What we know:
Layout: H1 2-18, H2 23-55, H3 61-87, H4 93-121, H5 124-138
Helix pairs in contact: 1-2, 2-3, 2-5, 3-4
The structure holds fe (ii) ion (FE2) (2 copies).
Amino acid sequence: MESDHERLDALWEEARRSWPQDVARARDRFRAFREGLLRHIEAEETLLFPFYEVHGTVSTHHLTDFLREEHAQIRAALQKLAGAFEEGSQDVEGPETILRNVLWAHNTREEGLLYPWFDHSITEGEGHELSERIRAMLSKPPS
Length: 143
Ligand SMILES: [Fe+2]
Ligand SMILES: [Fe+2]
């Protein structure tokens, strides 16, 4: 999941770099970024977080509540950015700032707290099954 963060960051940077000089390319990269990030969030919310909520300690449950809240903010920023990239209905800068601020802190939190828990706390069999299911979800063709 950490390498998926990097893959998505690169797509975003490319979309941003191409905008507004090469609108077609920027739109193409932005669509791949948005689609990929929504998938990533879906995989976390339906596979990773529930596993953590069942097997983590009760006192750490607020972590996933917090991460879900950040996902909602990320989804809202993506929606606004889609308006900017697809329809030119607003500036890219406003929602970009929101996305950058939330996403950077969010990814850092996951990489510092959540993902390491999985590295240390689950069995090899569980890890294998979980990564297979995540891989399948991330590689679903675009809807
Ligand atoms: Fe996340
Ligand atoms: Fe993530």
